[in-house]
Amino acid sequence: MLVLGIESSCDESGVALYDTEKGLLAHELYSQIELHAEYGGVVPELASRDHIRKITPLIKDILASQQLSLKDLDGIGYTAGPGLIGALLVGASIGRSLAWGLNIPAVAVHHMEGHLLAPMLEDEQPELPFVALLVSGGHTMLVEVKAIGDYQILGESLDDAAGEAFDKTAKMLDLGYPGGPILAALAEEGEAGIYKFPRPMVDRPGLDFSFSGLKTFTLNTWTKSTQTPQDKANIARAFQDAVVDTLFIKCRRALEQTGCQNLVIAGGVGANKALRAKLATLNASVSFPRMEFCTDNGAMIAYAGAMRLKAGQLEAAVIMPRPRWSLEELAEVV
Ligand code: KG4
Ligand code: ZN
What we know:
Blueprint (H helix, E strand, L loop, with lengths): L1 E6 L4 E8 L3 E9 L1 H5 L6 H22 L9 E7 L3 H18 L3 E5 H7 L12 E6 L4 E8 L2 E7 L5 H11 L6 H11 L22 H13 L4 H30 L3 E5 L6 H7 L5 E3 L10 H13 L24
Parallel strand pairs: 1-4, 4-5, 6-9, 9-10
Antiparallel strand pairs: 1-2, 2-3, 6-7, 7-8
Helix pairs in contact: 2-3, 4-10, 5-6, 5-7, 6-8, 7-8, 8-9
The protein binds 5'-O-[(R)-(carboxyoxy)(hydroxy)phosphoryl]adenosine (KG4) and zinc ion.
């Protein structure tokens, strides 16, 4: 079964072709980073308009790259939420209409399910059941995954997501957009242990997170410092170490609590090298998607869509994006 995946929940237009027999055939991504850079963050209306411009040519291009045509498609998976409503509407409308015109099934894919299944695109797939740490720009959560579609949220951020904390802290330090990777690169030039930052909520039981206090702590530390470039790097390092340590402690706790041996990391912050290195030291089997599949992409949506379509999960032909959508509402794939 050949499935086209379409991702348009935020600032990346992604498409991919996933074959349930042969695996991932191809994926293409167009990032809107340059478009939003001058505004210091994603402008939703500009994002929607750019998805309209890019998705159809991307679909034509990816099919041509595999010497395939629309007629070869057996199904379509498109991101229906969570995300920016206008951006979601574009991918959902294109996906649904294309499926209608081709008389093939289409399925609304949950963006975070896409992220947490992204490690399944690798040759060495994680074994079920696993605990997933989802760390993106909009979400930070620990999820117990017993089967595809059977998700229990063990804990989540009570305020900023980890990626959001990276982005906002980077903005406060005048590092530019997109903040997360820039702050992470600066942190690598910083010296560890110069500043002592808190590890929020680790002394309390439970698996929830809170990152907004760290952001303020970082700004106060910067304001009080002598503000040399090295101070900035050291502060970036202290911030990153605090986030990484906090995520590490909560992952260890989630594995203990569930008795699970397998941990999967997914979402944009999963591209953070310090986080990857620290989590690899856990006494568990830890899986990461390749770097390009940590951040938003069409491949993970094609995969999640293919799993659901293969299981015969058909839906009525309605275009209904869901800017808010809990992972726990999804049906199990059997
Ligand atoms: O999963 P994603 O691409 O989009 C959402 O669904 O949100 O995640 C984007 C987030 C942004 O907040 C970005 O700053 C962060 O992931 N990010 C990073 C790194 N690369 C991306 N944060 C820390 N270190 C990185 N290397
Ligand atoms: Zn994402």
